[in-house]
Every structure is written in structure tokens, then in C-alpha cells.
């Protein structure tokens, strides 16, 4: 689980289900829009990726997969961000 200000991200056991909710105005919830979510909503974009770690900041979110050691990120980035 990771949370920052108004966004919450949880990784359920097994790494196959990620849910996000909270403020989404910068796309940090990962649902392809900027809508706020009041209830946990499954993040389907990473289905089957075997995510082992998640974290979020004020306006961005990151997830790391076990296989391939891939890092996914979404939301708004600014100074000192990944490029």
C-alpha cells in the first residue's frame, strides 16, 4: 500500500490486482482519465504484469514488475522526474 496526500494505491497479494482511488486530476490513478475515484477501482492496464512493488507521490504513481524488471509510471512529472 502507498498513499500520498489524496491518492491511495494498493497491491493485493500475488501482484495481479492493483487498486487506486482518491484524487486523479493529474492522471496519477492510472485509469486513462483525470477523474477522482471515491472507491477502490481496479487498475486493468497492468493486468498480468506480476507487479511486486508500488509507490505514489503527490501527482504520480510507479509500479515495478517481477519479470523483466520493468518500471511503469504515470501521472504528472516535473523537476527531478524520470525521463
- Give me the strand/helix succession: EEEEEEE
How many DSSP-defined strands? Answer: 7
- Beta-strand share of residues: 35-45%
Largest β sheet strand count, sense and barrel closure: 4 strands, antiparallel
User: Span from first to last CA?
Assistant: 25 Å
What can you see in these coordinates?
It is a single chain. With about 80 residues, the chain is mostly beta strands. The protein has one domain. The chain has no helices and 7 strands. The chain has strands at about 1-5, 5-10, 20, 35-40, 50-55, 60-65, 70-75. A 4-stranded antiparallel β-sheet has the order 1-2-3-4, with no helix packed on it. Strands 5-6-7 form a 3-stranded antiparallel β-sheet, with no helix packed on it. Strand 6 and strand 7 form a beta hairpin. The model has no long low-confidence stretch (mean pLDDT about 80).
Main attributes of the structure:
7 strands, mainly beta, 3-stranded antiparallel beta sheet, 83 residues, 4-stranded antiparallel beta sheet
What is the element layout, followed by pairings?
Elements: E1 2-4, E2 7-11, E3 18-22, E4 37-42, E5 51-56, E6 60-65, E7 71-75
Antiparallel strand pairs: 1-2, 2-3, 3-4, 5-6, 6-7
